[in-house]
Design a protein that fits this description.
Family: Belongs to the short-chain dehydrogenases/reductases (SDR) family.
Order of helices and strands: EHEHEHEHEHEHHE
Number of strands: 7
GO molecular function: oxidoreductase activity
Largest sheet: 7 strands, parallel
CATH architecture: 3-Layer(aba) Sandwich
Oligomer: single chain
Keywords: Oxidoreductase
CATH class: Alpha Beta
Protein name: Oxoacyl-(Acyl carrier protein) reductase
Strand order of the largest sheet: 3-2-1-4-5-6-7
Radius of gyration: 17 Å
Number of helices: 7
CATH superfamily: NAD(P)-binding Rossmann-like Domain
Protein backbone atom coordinates (compact mmCIF):
# COMPACT_ATOMS: atom_id res chain seq x y z
CA UNK A 1 0.00 0.00 0.00
CA UNK A 2 1.17 3.55 -0.73
CA UNK A 3 2.85 4.86 2.42
CA UNK A 4 1.30 8.17 3.45
CA UNK A 5 -0.55 9.47 6.48
CA UNK A 6 -2.70 12.53 5.89
CA UNK A 7 -3.15 15.12 8.63
CA UNK A 8 -6.80 15.75 9.60
CA UNK A 9 -7.03 19.22 8.03
CA UNK A 10 -5.11 18.35 4.84
CA UNK A 11 -7.85 19.59 2.50
CA UNK A 12 -9.49 22.26 4.67
CA UNK A 13 -11.06 25.02 2.59
CA UNK A 14 -10.63 23.16 -0.70
CA UNK A 15 -13.32 22.42 -3.26
CA UNK A 16 -12.84 19.09 -5.03
CA UNK A 17 -14.87 17.37 -7.74
CA UNK A 18 -15.06 13.57 -7.84
CA UNK A 19 -16.59 11.84 -10.86
CA UNK A 20 -18.30 8.49 -10.40
CA UNK A 21 -18.78 9.51 -6.77
CA UNK A 22 -21.84 7.36 -6.13
CA UNK A 23 -20.10 4.10 -5.32
CA UNK A 24 -16.83 2.18 -5.15
CA UNK A 25 -13.56 4.07 -5.23
CA UNK A 26 -15.27 7.35 -6.13
CA UNK A 27 -17.52 7.22 -3.06
CA UNK A 28 -14.58 6.29 -0.83
CA UNK A 29 -12.47 9.15 -2.20
CA UNK A 30 -15.31 11.65 -1.80
CA UNK A 31 -15.79 10.65 1.83
CA UNK A 32 -12.03 10.69 2.49
CA UNK A 33 -11.68 14.17 0.99
CA UNK A 34 -14.63 15.44 3.01
CA UNK A 35 -13.23 13.88 6.19
CA UNK A 36 -10.05 15.89 5.63
CA UNK A 37 -11.90 19.19 5.28
CA UNK A 38 -12.86 19.51 1.60
CA UNK A 39 -16.15 20.60 0.10
CA UNK A 40 -16.77 17.77 -2.34
CA UNK A 41 -18.72 18.06 -5.59
CA UNK A 42 -20.27 14.63 -6.13
CA UNK A 43 -20.70 14.06 -9.86
CA UNK A 44 -22.30 10.94 -11.28
CA UNK A 45 -25.11 9.44 -13.29
CA UNK A 46 -27.29 7.96 -10.53
CA UNK A 47 -28.67 10.61 -8.21
CA UNK A 48 -29.81 8.09 -5.57
CA UNK A 49 -26.25 6.83 -5.12
CA UNK A 50 -24.86 10.37 -4.93
CA UNK A 51 -27.51 11.31 -2.36
CA UNK A 52 -26.50 8.38 -0.17
CA UNK A 53 -22.86 9.52 -0.19
CA UNK A 54 -24.07 13.08 0.52
CA UNK A 55 -26.05 11.85 3.53
CA UNK A 56 -23.07 9.92 4.90
CA UNK A 57 -20.77 12.95 4.59
CA UNK A 58 -23.32 15.25 6.21
CA UNK A 59 -24.06 12.77 9.02
CA UNK A 60 -20.35 12.61 9.79
CA UNK A 61 -20.29 16.37 10.31
CA UNK A 62 -17.97 17.14 7.42
CA UNK A 63 -18.31 20.16 5.07
CA UNK A 64 -21.60 20.10 3.16
CA UNK A 65 -21.04 18.49 -0.26
CA UNK A 66 -22.94 19.13 -3.49
CA UNK A 67 -24.75 16.57 -5.64
CA UNK A 68 -24.30 17.01 -9.40
CA UNK A 69 -26.24 14.49 -11.51
CA UNK A 70 -24.44 14.36 -14.87
CA UNK A 71 -24.40 11.65 -17.53
CA UNK A 72 -20.91 11.47 -19.04
CA UNK A 73 -22.11 9.15 -21.79
CA UNK A 74 -24.71 11.49 -23.24
CA UNK A 75 -23.59 14.99 -22.19
CA UNK A 76 -23.22 17.51 -25.03
CA UNK A 77 -20.53 20.24 -25.17
CA UNK A 78 -22.92 22.99 -24.07
CA UNK A 79 -23.81 20.97 -20.96
CA UNK A 80 -20.16 20.96 -19.88
CA UNK A 81 -20.11 24.74 -20.34
CA UNK A 82 -23.26 25.06 -18.24
CA UNK A 83 -21.71 22.82 -15.56
CA UNK A 84 -18.58 24.99 -15.41
CA UNK A 85 -20.67 28.16 -15.23
CA UNK A 86 -22.71 26.73 -12.36
CA UNK A 87 -19.57 25.75 -10.43
CA UNK A 88 -18.00 29.16 -10.98
CA UNK A 89 -21.18 30.85 -9.78
CA UNK A 90 -21.50 28.69 -6.67
CA UNK A 91 -17.86 28.11 -5.71
CA UNK A 92 -15.71 30.57 -7.67
CA UNK A 93 -13.02 28.00 -8.46
CA UNK A 94 -12.08 24.40 -7.75
CA UNK A 95 -8.90 23.04 -6.19
CA UNK A 96 -9.07 19.44 -7.34
CA UNK A 97 -10.58 17.06 -9.86
CA UNK A 98 -10.55 13.28 -9.49
CA UNK A 99 -11.43 11.50 -12.73
CA UNK A 100 -12.76 8.24 -11.34
CA UNK A 101 -15.80 7.43 -13.51
CA UNK A 102 -15.29 4.77 -16.17
CA UNK A 103 -16.83 1.59 -17.54
CA UNK A 104 -15.13 -1.68 -18.34
CA UNK A 105 -17.01 -2.72 -21.49
CA UNK A 106 -16.79 -6.22 -22.97
CA UNK A 107 -13.65 -8.19 -22.23
CA UNK A 108 -13.14 -9.82 -25.60
CA UNK A 109 -10.60 -10.06 -28.43
CA UNK A 110 -10.44 -6.84 -30.44
CA UNK A 111 -11.48 -8.82 -33.51
CA UNK A 112 -14.80 -9.59 -31.82
CA UNK A 113 -15.37 -6.16 -30.24
CA UNK A 114 -18.22 -4.23 -31.84
CA UNK A 115 -17.70 -0.66 -32.92
CA UNK A 116 -20.62 0.44 -30.75
CA UNK A 117 -19.08 -1.10 -27.63
CA UNK A 118 -15.66 0.35 -28.40
CA UNK A 119 -17.05 3.85 -28.92
CA UNK A 120 -19.20 3.71 -25.78
CA UNK A 121 -16.18 2.88 -23.61
CA UNK A 122 -14.09 5.59 -25.27
CA UNK A 123 -16.92 8.12 -24.90
CA UNK A 124 -17.15 7.67 -21.13
CA UNK A 125 -13.53 6.85 -20.30
CA UNK A 126 -11.74 9.28 -22.63
CA UNK A 127 -13.93 11.81 -24.46
CA UNK A 128 -15.95 12.84 -21.41
CA UNK A 129 -12.80 13.02 -19.31
CA UNK A 130 -11.21 15.36 -21.87
CA UNK A 131 -14.33 17.54 -22.04
CA UNK A 132 -14.56 17.86 -18.27
CA UNK A 133 -10.84 18.61 -17.92
CA UNK A 134 -10.73 21.25 -20.64
CA UNK A 135 -13.93 22.92 -19.43
CA UNK A 136 -12.89 23.05 -15.77
CA UNK A 137 -9.24 23.97 -16.35
CA UNK A 138 -9.89 27.74 -16.14
CA UNK A 139 -11.50 27.19 -12.70
CA UNK A 140 -8.58 25.00 -11.59
CA UNK A 141 -6.12 27.69 -12.66
CA UNK A 142 -7.84 30.11 -10.25
CA UNK A 143 -6.68 27.92 -7.35
CA UNK A 144 -3.36 28.59 -5.65
CA UNK A 145 -2.56 24.88 -5.74
CA UNK A 146 -4.77 22.56 -7.81
CA UNK A 147 -4.53 18.86 -8.59
CA UNK A 148 -6.04 16.73 -11.36
CA UNK A 149 -5.94 12.98 -10.77
CA UNK A 150 -6.58 10.52 -13.60
CA UNK A 151 -7.56 6.93 -12.85
CA UNK A 152 -5.44 4.48 -14.81
CA UNK A 153 -4.92 0.72 -14.76
CA UNK A 154 -2.13 -1.80 -15.14
CA UNK A 155 -3.67 -2.62 -18.57
CA UNK A 156 -3.21 1.02 -19.52
CA UNK A 157 0.51 0.84 -18.87
CA UNK A 158 1.23 -2.47 -20.60
CA UNK A 159 -1.17 -3.89 -23.15
CA UNK A 160 -2.90 -7.13 -22.23
CA UNK A 161 -5.01 -9.41 -24.39
CA UNK A 162 -8.79 -9.33 -24.13
CA UNK A 163 -8.99 -6.02 -22.26
CA UNK A 164 -10.46 -4.46 -25.39
CA UNK A 165 -11.60 -0.87 -25.32
CA UNK A 166 -10.96 -0.51 -21.58
CA UNK A 167 -7.24 -1.14 -21.94
CA UNK A 168 -7.02 1.21 -24.91
CA UNK A 169 -8.95 3.88 -22.99
CA UNK A 170 -6.52 3.69 -20.09
CA UNK A 171 -3.54 4.13 -22.43
CA UNK A 172 -5.36 7.25 -23.66
CA UNK A 173 -5.86 8.32 -20.05
CA UNK A 174 -2.12 8.13 -19.39
CA UNK A 175 -1.46 10.07 -22.61
CA UNK A 176 -3.94 12.78 -21.69
CA UNK A 177 -2.41 13.08 -18.22
CA UNK A 178 1.13 13.34 -19.55
CA UNK A 179 0.21 15.88 -22.22
CA UNK A 180 -1.70 18.04 -19.75
CA UNK A 181 1.09 17.82 -17.16
CA UNK A 182 3.69 18.91 -19.69
CA UNK A 183 1.56 21.85 -20.80
CA UNK A 184 0.98 22.96 -17.20
CA UNK A 185 4.60 22.57 -16.03
CA UNK A 186 5.87 25.96 -14.87
CA UNK A 187 2.87 27.70 -16.44
CA UNK A 188 -0.05 27.20 -14.02
CA UNK A 189 -0.50 26.15 -10.37
CA UNK A 190 -2.15 22.91 -11.52
CA UNK A 191 -0.54 19.47 -11.51
CA UNK A 192 -1.73 16.27 -13.20
CA UNK A 193 -0.90 12.69 -12.22
CA UNK A 194 -2.43 9.23 -12.56
CA UNK A 195 -3.27 6.45 -10.11
CA UNK A 196 -3.56 2.74 -10.81
CA UNK A 197 -5.87 1.55 -7.99
CA UNK A 198 -4.89 -2.11 -8.41
CA UNK A 199 -7.20 -4.98 -7.48
CA UNK A 200 -9.87 -3.47 -5.21
CA UNK A 201 -13.16 -4.81 -3.84
CA UNK A 202 -15.54 -3.04 -6.22
CA UNK A 203 -18.39 -4.04 -8.52
CA UNK A 204 -16.20 -3.27 -11.56
CA UNK A 205 -13.52 -5.65 -10.31
CA UNK A 206 -16.17 -8.34 -9.77
CA UNK A 207 -17.40 -7.78 -13.33
CA UNK A 208 -13.87 -8.18 -14.71
CA UNK A 209 -12.99 -11.19 -12.54
CA UNK A 210 -16.23 -13.03 -11.70
CA UNK A 211 -14.37 -16.11 -10.43
CA UNK A 212 -12.17 -14.17 -8.00
CA UNK A 213 -12.73 -14.14 -4.24
CA UNK A 214 -13.36 -10.43 -3.52
CA UNK A 215 -12.24 -10.91 0.08
CA UNK A 216 -8.67 -11.19 -1.19
CA UNK A 217 -8.73 -7.54 -2.35
CA UNK A 218 -8.63 -4.41 -0.17
CA UNK A 219 -11.69 -2.23 0.26
CA UNK A 220 -11.70 1.12 -1.57
CA UNK A 221 -11.25 2.86 1.79
CA UNK A 222 -7.95 1.04 2.29
CA UNK A 223 -6.28 2.44 -0.85
CA UNK A 224 -6.99 6.10 -0.06
CA UNK A 225 -3.49 7.21 1.08
CA UNK A 226 -2.26 7.98 -2.46
CA UNK A 227 -5.56 9.70 -3.34
CA UNK A 228 -5.13 12.00 -0.36
CA UNK A 229 -1.44 12.58 -1.04
CA UNK A 230 -1.95 13.64 -4.65
CA UNK A 231 -4.95 15.84 -3.87
CA UNK A 232 -3.29 17.70 -1.00
CA UNK A 233 -0.48 20.26 -0.76
CA UNK A 234 2.12 17.65 0.22
CA UNK A 235 2.34 16.66 -3.46
CA UNK A 236 2.88 20.20 -4.76
CA UNK A 237 5.47 20.03 -7.54
CA UNK A 238 4.69 16.39 -8.35
CA UNK A 239 3.51 16.46 -11.96
CA UNK A 240 3.16 13.99 -14.81
CA UNK A 241 3.78 10.92 -12.66
CA UNK A 242 2.10 7.51 -12.69
CA UNK A 243 1.36 6.20 -9.20
CA UNK A 244 0.19 2.84 -7.84
CA UNK A 245 -2.27 2.78 -4.94
CA UNK A 246 -0.97 -0.60 -3.82
Amino acid sequence: MFDYSARPDLLKGRTIMVTGAGRGIGAAAAKAYAAHGATVLLLGKTEANLSQVYDEIEAAGHPKPAVIPFNLETALPHQYDELAAMIESEFGHIDGLLHNASIIGPRTPLEQLSGDNFMRVMQINVNAMFMLTSTLLPLLKLSQDASVIFTSSSVGRKGRAYWGAYGVSKFATEGLMQTLADELEGVAPVRANSINPGATRTSMRAQAYPGENPENNPLPEQIMPVYLYLMGPDSTGINGQAFNAQ
